[in-house]
């Protein structure tokens, strides 16, 4: 018997989108990556404010780099799984809502790939390089302050855009859950 069901209409006439669920591996990756990225944003903003020369600061930066590369690998896996499984059809909603959701999600994917790449590239033009849980990764250049500042500038800008997108994404999910009450959150709930 197939487990896939289509969106249903409940007795009070509301659309119930919760009967169409994302594939389990995608649900797991969504929540693991969400927690990791929110932690990475908090760690990133906190560590850049720490005074220079503090041993704790360099430990935290190394942890940030390793976790960031791990997130990158998980995001690549997520993109592959998403391409393999697709996503359940969206429930009926207004055109602008559909467009807003699609644009936010597409930009989140761009940010999820762009954050680690710009962090890694910035670190490549630094004498410290990047260690991935102790393993030295290739550097793409020598110590270059100008290039480093360009990539870290982009890294910092995307971080703020990501933070705003995560808030928008969360508010959208809450609107569906609390105002529309269409069960959309259940599609992605573990
Ligand atoms: C999900 C991935 C990542 C997120 C969400 C993230 C987030 C952040 C944030 C919020 C900051 C502070 C930005 C600022 O206010 O200037 C930061 C700084 C930094 N990040 Fe990341 N990061 C990620 C991945 C990486 C990776 C993979 C590396 C390196 C391999 C890296 C290296 C750095 C470094 C060295 C800084 C300090 C930059 C500076 O000194 O100005 N990040 N990151």
UniProtKB/TrEMBL annotation:
<dbReference type="GO" id="GO:0009055">
    <property type="term" value="F:electron transfer activity"/>
</dbReference>
<keyword id="KW-1133">Transmembrane helix</keyword>
<keyword id="KW-0349">Heme</keyword>
<keyword id="KW-0249">Electron transport</keyword>
<dbReference type="GO" id="GO:0022904">
    <property type="term" value="P:respiratory electron transport chain"/>
</dbReference>
<keyword id="KW-0472">Membrane</keyword>
<feature type="transmembrane region" description="Helical">
    <location>
        <begin position="67"/>
        <end position="85"/>
    </location>
</feature>
<dbReference type="InterPro" id="IPR016174">
    <property type="entry name" value="Di-haem_cyt_TM"/>
</dbReference>
<feature type="transmembrane region" description="Helical">
    <location>
        <begin position="106"/>
        <end position="125"/>
    </location>
</feature>
<keyword id="KW-0408">Iron</keyword>
<dbReference type="Pfam" id="PF01292">
    <property type="entry name" value="Ni_hydr_CYTB"/>
</dbReference>
<keyword id="KW-0812">Transmembrane</keyword>
<protein>
    <submittedName>
        <fullName>Cytochrome B561</fullName>
    </submittedName>
</protein>
<keyword id="KW-1003">Cell membrane</keyword>
<feature type="transmembrane region" description="Helical">
    <location>
        <begin position="150"/>
        <end position="171"/>
    </location>
</feature>
<dbReference type="GO" id="GO:0046872">
    <property type="term" value="F:metal ion binding"/>
</dbReference>
<comment type="similarity">
    <text>Belongs to the cytochrome b561 family.</text>
</comment>
<feature type="domain" description="Cytochrome b561 bacterial/Ni-hydrogenase">
    <location>
        <begin position="21"/>
        <end position="190"/>
    </location>
</feature>
<dbReference type="InterPro" id="IPR052168">
    <property type="entry name" value="Cytochrome_b561_oxidase"/>
</dbReference>
<keyword id="KW-0479">Metal-binding</keyword>
<keyword id="KW-0813">Transport</keyword>
<feature type="transmembrane region" description="Helical">
    <location>
        <begin position="26"/>
        <end position="47"/>
    </location>
</feature>
<dbReference type="InterPro" id="IPR011577">
    <property type="entry name" value="Cyt_b561_bac/Ni-Hgenase"/>
</dbReference>
<dbReference type="GO" id="GO:0020037">
    <property type="term" value="F:heme binding"/>
</dbReference>
<dbReference type="GO" id="GO:0005886">
    <property type="term" value="C:plasma membrane"/>
</dbReference>
């Amino acid at each position: 018997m197939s487990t896939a069901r289509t969106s249903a209409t409940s007795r009070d006439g509301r659309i119930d989108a919760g009967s169409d669920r994302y594939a389990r591996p995608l649900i797991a990756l969504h929540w693991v990556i969400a927690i990791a990225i929110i932690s990475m944003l908090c760690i990133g903003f906190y560590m850049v404010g720490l005074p220079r020369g503090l041993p704790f600061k360099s430990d935290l930066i190394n942890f940030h780099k390793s976790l960031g590369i791990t997130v990158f690998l998980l995001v690549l896996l997520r993109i592959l799984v998403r391409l393999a499984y697709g996503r359940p059809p969206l429930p009926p909603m207004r055109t602008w809502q559909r467009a807003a959701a699609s644009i936010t999600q597409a930009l989140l994917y761009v940010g999820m790939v762009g954050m680690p790449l710009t962090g890694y590239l910035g670190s490549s033009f630094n004498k410290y390089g990047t260690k991935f849980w102790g393993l030295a990764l290739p550097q793409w250049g020598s110590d270059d302050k100008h290039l480093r500042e360009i990539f870290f500038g982009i890294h910092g800008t995307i971080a703020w855009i990501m933070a705003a997108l995560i808030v928008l994404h969360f508010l959208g999910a809450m609107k569906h859950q609390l105002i529309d009450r269409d069960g959309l959150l259940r599609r992605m709930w573990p």
